[in-house]
Design brief:
- With 132 residues, this protein is an all-alpha fold.
- It folds into two domains: 67 residues, Tetratricopeptide repeat domain (Serine Threonine Protein Phosphatase 5, Tetratricopeptide repeat, Alpha Horseshoe); 47 residues, no CATH class.
- The protein is built from seven helices and no strands.
- Helix 2 packs antiparallel against helix 3.
- The longest helix is centred in the middle third of the chain and has 18 residues.
- The N and C termini lie far apart (62 Å).
């Protein structure tokens, strides 16, 4: 890491700031430096964006793939369907309910089918009990 930044988090913050300023090369440098210090999903995400803006499709896709793998390994954080986005969509659907399964990733119906099915069954019982 460079002496200018103390931690991986500092480098990720600096990389995101560089992205916001459209300084793609600086952003890439920050994210790559962060990844030299530790595994960081946020650094992989940032590197994917920086590489994309620089026209380096191969690097962008490789970083996005690594970010996805890291999200899957982490469980509750899922880069393909972030909780805040899913919650916002559920709020727009009358009668919908958002539930976060903290320890699961993208497909809880496969990862923990019994828990998933119990939640779905409970939801449908509530729906069926509602007045028309």
């Amino acid at each position: 890491m460079t002496s200018e930044f103390e931690t991986v988090d500092d480098l990720v913050v600096a990389g995101n700031a560089a992205l916001a300023r459209s300084e793609w090369t600086e952003a890439r440098r920050c994210f790559e430096s962060a990844l030299g210090g530790a595994e960081s999903v946020d650094a992989w995400e940032g590197l994917a964006w920086a590489a994309s803006w620089l026209g380096d499709t191969d690097a962008s896709l490789a970083a996005r793939e690594q970010a996805f793998r890291s999200y899957r390994a982490a469980g509750g954080r899922d880069g393909t369907s972030r909780p805040e986005l899913c919650r916002a969509v559920a709020e727009l659907i009358p009668g919908a309910r958002f539930e976060l399964m903290e320890e699961e990733a993208h497909q809880p119906f496969q990862e923990v089918p019994d828990e998933w099915n119990a939640r779905v069954d409970a939801f449908w019982r509530e729906v069926e009990a509602r007045p028309c």
